[in-house]
């Protein structure tokens, strides 16, 4: 089954966060804000904006003639359908096949009190804990002795790095979940 396209949801999130954006402004967001975890090119964004307009997820709004640019500029805003599509995507559960979407979904949650935040963090915590535990199990199975470590040292190093990465991620998620619970308790 083909993987679900992610770009339209990123664009919906960007427009939602900014209320209205031009295609150029979206490109700038990709260069400066989203580029740490996702990339998209001009040739991807503009056709996607057209598809989203055709699907009634967004509506173009043309600005008055600008003397500096010597042209009208098209901005995009979400329609009610687009708002619902974004909300549904943010609520879609994370799985082992789509957990790379966690940072993107997290990026588009604007409110610390959002009912989307805790479930999203809990889902990612479970996935990361499972992955860390799997890697720890692989370590015990593949490298039970110093001889096995020395025989496949590069593999050993790669596996230890994976365990370290997932352990750090789990710790960050646990700390985040605790801090969100502390905020709830103080309200």
UniProtKB/TrEMBL annotation:
SUPFAM superfamilies reported in the protein's UniProt record: Winged helix' DNA-binding domain
The organism's place on the tree of life at top rank: Bacteria
InterPro entries, per the entry: Tscrpt_reg_PadR_C, Tscrpt_reg_PadR_N, WH-like_DNA-bd_sf, WH_DNA-bd_sf
Domain Transcription regulator PadR C-terminal: residue ranges: 102-173
Residue ranges constituting the Transcription regulator PadR N-terminal domain according to the UniProt record: 11-87
The protein's name in its UniProt record: PadR family transcriptional regulator
């Amino acid at each position: 089954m083909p993987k679900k396209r992610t770009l339209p949801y990123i664009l919906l999130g960007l427009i939602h966060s900014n209320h209205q954006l031009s295609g150029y402004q979206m490109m700038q967001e990709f260069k400066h804000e989203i580029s740490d975890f996702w990339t998209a090119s001009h040739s991807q964004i503009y056709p996607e904006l057209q598809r989203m307009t055709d699907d009634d997820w967004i509506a173009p709004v043309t600005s008055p003639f600008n003397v500096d640019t010597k042209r009208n500029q098209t901005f995009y805003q979400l329609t009610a359908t687009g708002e619902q599509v974004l909300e549904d995507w943010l609520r879609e559960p994370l799985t082992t096949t789509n957990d790379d979407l966690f940072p993107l979904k997290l990026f588009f949650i604007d409110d610390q009190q959002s009912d989307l935040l805790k479930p999203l963090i809990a889902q990612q915590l479970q996935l990361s804990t499972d992955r860390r535990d799997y890697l720890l199990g692989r370590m015990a199975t593949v490298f039970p002795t110093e001889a096995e470590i020395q025989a496949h040292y590069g593999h050993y190093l790669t596996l230890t790095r994976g365990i370290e990465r997932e352990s750090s991620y789990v710790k960050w998620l646990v700390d985040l979940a605790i801090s969100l619970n502390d905020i709830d308790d103080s309200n």
